[in-house]
Amino acid sequence: ILTIFMFGMAIYQVFRNDPADNAPTCATLYQCIGQAIVAGIGQGDISVLFHDNIWNDVPEIVYYEPLTQLRTFLIIVFFMLWEYVLLNIFVGLIASAFEAMRDDKSTVQEDSATKCLICSLDMYTFEKCTKHGFKHHVEFQHNPLRYVFYLHYLKKTKETDYTGADTVVLNKLTHGSNAEDCASWLPINRALSLRKHEEEAHEEHVMQQQEVSNQVAMLLERHKKEIDEQAASLRLEILEMFRQIMESIKQESK
Question: I want to staple 65 with a disulfide (CB 3.0 to 4.6 A). Which of 58, 59, 73, 83 is the partner?
Answer without folding.
Answer: 59
